[in-house]
């Protein structure tokens, strides 16, 4: 294959990857893990994180900087990326600081005074989805968070660590690690052994 043909084929592959939706991408990724041991190890190194590495990321110096990680040992590994139950974003558990997450704890409310001539606002305000409504773009000041009185363009009045949503299903065999992520918090939450 000429260099030119090689470049073209690389470009086509990138375009093909860009076309994938998430379920298709996940399915192809799993097939590649099953088909190639090298690929599986590479994927493990990128997507799993060991407990010592996680503790170091949380600022726990006791785990020591020199201990080599062996990701083959899945019993001490966690999923590196989790979805946050507060801001709903996917986050990297090794980069989860006390300032990583911003969200509002209250409700977003429509201020009818901002839309005096709007029939829908006047007659049937409950039919308006404040999360997606088009009026947010033109009149952001008409959508107010009741926790802080900021408008809908404000990213959040609460700033803290991301909190992982539900633990992974058992069949995956990998636990999420909220107890370690909260290592510096004041709460005295007991660490549960997830034994069957
Ligand atoms: Zn707020
Ligand atoms: Zn978050």
Helix percentage range: 25-40%
Q: What global shape is seen?
A: flat
Our estimate of the beta-strand percent is: 5-15%
Q: Using DSSP, what is the number of strands?
A: 8
Number of helices: 7
The average pLDDT value, as a whole number, equals 81
Please state the CA-atom Rg, rounded to the nearest Å: 23 Å
Q: Give the strand order of the largest sheet, numbering strands 1, 2, ... along the chain.
A: 1-2
Our measurement of the CA-to-CA distance between the termini, rounded to an integer number of angstroms, reads 55 Å
Which sheet architecture does the biggest sheet show?
Answer: 2 strands, antiparallel
| Low-confidence blocks of residues | 61-70, 178-196
**H and E string:** HHHEHEEEEEHHEEH
Bound molecules: zinc ion
Structural class: alpha+beta
Biased composition (Acidic residues): 181-196
Organism: Apiospora saccharicola
Region (Disordered): 177-196
Protein name: C2H2-type domain-containing protein
Characterization of this structure:
- The chain is an alpha+beta fold and 196 residues long.
- The protein is 31% helix and 12% strand.
- It is built from seven helices and eight strands, in the order H-H-H-E-H-E-E-E-E-E-H-H-E-E-H.
- It has helices at 3-18, 22-35, 37-47, 51-57, 119-123, 135-138, 178-181, and strands at 48-50, 77-79, 81-83, 90-92, 101-103, 108-110, 143-145, 158-160.
- Helix 2 packs across helix 3.
- The longest helix has 16 residues, at 3-18.
- The chain binds zinc ion (2 copies).
- One zinc ion binds next to loops.
């Amino acid at each position: 294959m000429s260099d030119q043909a090689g470049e073209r084929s690389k470009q086509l592959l990138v375009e093909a990857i860009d076309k994938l939706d998430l379920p298709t991408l996940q399915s192809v990724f799993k097939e590649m893990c099953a088909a190639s041991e090298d690929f599986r190890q590479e994927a493990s190194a990128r997507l799993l994180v060991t407990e010592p590495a996680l503790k170091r990321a949380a600022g726990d110096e006791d785990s020591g900087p020199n201990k080599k990680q062996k990701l083959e040992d899945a019993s001490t590994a966690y999923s590196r990326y989790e979805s946050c139950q507060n801001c709903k974003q996917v986050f990297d558990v090794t980069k989860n600081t006390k300032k990583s997450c911003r969200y509002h704890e209250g409700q977003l409310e429509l201020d009818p005074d901002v839309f005096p001539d709007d029939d829908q606002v006047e007659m049937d305000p409950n039919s308006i989805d404040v999360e997606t409504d088009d009026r947010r773009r033109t009149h952001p000041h008409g959508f107010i968070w009741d926790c802080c009185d900021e408008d809908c363009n404000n990213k959040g009045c609460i700033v803290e660590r991301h909190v992982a949503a539900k633990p992974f299903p058992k069949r995956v065999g990998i636990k999420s690690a909220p107890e370690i992520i909260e290592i510096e918090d004041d709460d005295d939450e007991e660490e549960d052994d997830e034994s069957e």
